[in-house]
Amino acid sequence: MKKPEMILFDYGHTLAWEPEQDYLRGHRRALELAVENPMGITPEGLNELSSEIYTELFSQLRPLNLETDGLKLDACIYDRLALKFDRPLPEVELERWRATEPIFPMEGIRDFLSLCAEMEIRTAVISNLSFSGASLVSRIAEILPEHRFEFILASSESVFRKPSRRIFERALGLAALDAEDCWFIGDDVVCDVEGAAAAGIFPVWYRSPLRCTYKKPAGHAPRCEHLLVESWAELGAIVRRL
Q1: Quick one: how far is CA 176 from the chain centroid?
Q2: In this predicted structure, what is the pLDDT of residue 225?
Q3: Which residues on neighbouring strands pair with residue 202, listed in sequence order?
Q4: How many C-beta atoms surround the C-beta of residue 150 within 10 A?
Q5: Other C-beta atoms lying within 10 Å of the C-beta of residue 126
Q6: Terminal C-alpha separation, the chain
Q7: Which helix (H) or strand (E) holds 206?
Q8: pLDDT, tens digit, for every residue of 100-110?
Q9: Which residues face 34 on adjacent strands?
């Protein structure tokens, strides 16, 4: 094992802990920002319609490892309902996400990122996410304002989602590095660990003791060579020895 030139991080349940997801609360916030609601849609109605449309699209795209552009999909939903806002839709999206899901930095991640800076290890993020990349950048800045991520890739703006090698290859191109010069750290066995390995990137399985609130475990260990850690302090000790 050699010191990586760059470490690529997953976002959800790796950098950030999300203790709850309340989509109804998020849609209620979106309607609070609407200045016109001629059809009188309720938060419950908006939540039901959005869930129906997102689920339909996810069922078609996810098996192909393709991602939804949630910002454009929200625009379609709001236009259908004749909802009008006095601010740009990206601001509405960010407010909706904040209301839907509080986020906190994973314990020890700040110290680990400081270690990366100290050891001159470059850092970046790849996240499977239907929210826009701009919203992801804002949310990461909320919990890790001192971060030095060179780029933050959301699958919503990359067409492909992990475990597709295409999104990993895009990151390698942005970094101007070969796969063997990078590590990828994430909690998802299939998308993060096996996906990175298939792209030639060394995978680190971050298995947090905190329960993930929005997906079930894979049910099997990674079927590839990998490093398993259960805390950022544990990984920091390993990196220091490289």
Answers
A1: 22
A2: 96
A3: 183
A4: 13
A5: 28
A6: 8
A7: strand 202-206
A8: 999 999 999 99
A9: 85
